[in-house]
Amino acid sequence: MNHEEQEQTGIAHEPDLYIQGGRPLRGEARIEASKNAVLPILSATLLTPDAVRLPGVPWLHDVDTLSRVHKALGTDLQREGHDLIVQTNDVDPFAAPEHLVRRMRASFLIAGPLLARFGAARVPLPGGCAIGSRPIDLHLKGLVALGADVQSGNGSIEFRAPRLHGANIYLDFPSVGATENLLMAATLADGWTTIENAAQEPEVVDLANFLCSLGAEVRGAGTAELRIHGVRRLHGAEYQVISDRIEAGTYLVATAATGGDVTVAPVLPEHLKPLLAKLREAGGVIEVHGDTVRLRQSERLRPIDVKTMPHPGFPTDLQAPLMAALSLADGTSVITETVFENRFMHVSELRRMGADIKIEGRTAMVTGVSHLTGANLHASDLRAAAALVIAALAADGRSTIADAYHLDRGYANLEEKFAQLGADIERRTCSEVL
Ligand code: EPZ
Question: What is the pLDDT of residues 204-234, one digit of tens each?
């Protein structure tokens, strides 16, 4: 039942999160390894029969989902605390379970590695999701260029290529996932592959660095042109994944929204540059020391204009959280979402708290109000849920958030971390009838 149906039937979603707003956040937030680097790197372990150890991997639903896909394929995957030990030397490349791949689009990143290592694979088609149709045309076009035969039907795609060969690929859009899938496939293809208009996100660079630690030959990571020289075999490694810039950014935006003083660590400050530039424009005082970033917001947020772009532009994953904060700014901000076609799902819920937001196509005009009021809210996707948490922390009064499980996809121990920063937040499960 969607939100409206629940209200009509009188049976409310079980509120998961209860937040009493109005308290400035203060203290330090510990940042985990990056979800969007762990997922492609965990897929890349399919490229080698040797054991791979990934220390410090956070307990996230998305990591759990991909781990379950791996186990269904036959991967030997062990958790030792926060360490993941993975060995993929006994894998059936046709065994990826549909219900898991459909649950999480990033599961499709197993396609390139399975095809490159085993010469054939069947991968269920990932579904769309709340933020857009999420096509995979660029993935498929690149794999065909590398020599794959692609047959789709019955909700999945069969790939066959006795041996992949190098190719010159141009991506119509610098898709993160397509860049990652093709980069992984090219590491075992015969000869040289060039990927032009490649994604430059830090998570793509981390994947490239991981692949090089396995013995791959990759050049140009972090630029728009990747060059890969295929090798016969890759070996195992131990690899520390980079810090999560989107988790860190979420805590910094929450600090700005509540007028607080918070340090996030460990982080890679250069990965946060687009966000830090915008938070400074909005009046935040920011100090960078080594792997820590401190933000103090002593004055009301100033309005700013933001346009999401592929890296090194402003990250689309922080658009919803930042809009929540700018709902309280001293003027009108203009936010343009250029990456996804439907990433304003949080707007209707923010309006229910008193936000003044007008949507015109892919642009939101956010006119700051003096205060937001707590409300019973409903999360639609991971980053929209983060936006609602931020708005509730900054609002007057109590808010509840139903379907907060979306948060668990990408934020470990979210309520504990916010509580340690002084927030009045707790997770409860109870059913209530309107
Ligand atoms: C990755 O998704 C991230 N997920 C997303 O984070 C992030 O928002 C996105 O990159 C953009 O930065 C992971 O890394 C697991 P894309 P991905 O392919 O790879 C279109 C989060 O909240 N496109 O760069 O799916 C697509 O429709 C998640 O952590 C095609 O048209 O993103 C979209 O409009 C959400 N054809 C645009 O490109 C294709 O074949 C960007 O998609 C592929 C993509």
Answer: 999 999 999 999 999 999 999 999 999 999 9
Ligand 1 centroid to Cα of residue 162, in Å, is: 29
Using CB distances shorter than 6 Å, the residues near ligand 1 are 36, 39, 105-106, 132, 134-139, 173, 175-178, 203, 316-317, 339-340, 382-383, 410
Q: Do 316 and 340 contact (CB within 8 A), yes or no?
A: yes
CA of 432 to the centre of ligand 1 (A): 36
Enter the DSSP assignment of 224: S
Q: Which of 41, 108, 172, 176 for mutating ligand 1's site (highest number of atoms within 8 Å of CB)?
A: 176
**Global pTM value:** 0.95
Q: How many other CB atoms sit within 10 Å of the CB of residue 416?
A: 11
Beta-carbon contacts of 175 under 8 Å, excluding residues fewer than 6 positions away, are 138, 139, 199
* Centre of ligand 1 from the C-alpha of residue 396, in Å: 35
SS3 of 258-271: the string is HCCEEEEECCCHHH
Beta bridge partners of 160: 120, 149
For residue 157, list its beta bridge partners: 123, 152
Cβ atoms 211, 46 nearer than 8 A: no
DSSP H helix total and E strand total for the chain: 15, 23
- CA separation for the pair 230, 185 (Å, rounded): 9
Both tokens of residue 282?
A: 């909005």
As a whole number of angstroms, the distance between CA 154 and CA 162 comes to: 23
Ligand 1 atom at shortest distance from the alpha carbon of 136: 40
pLDDT at residue 434 is higher than 50: no
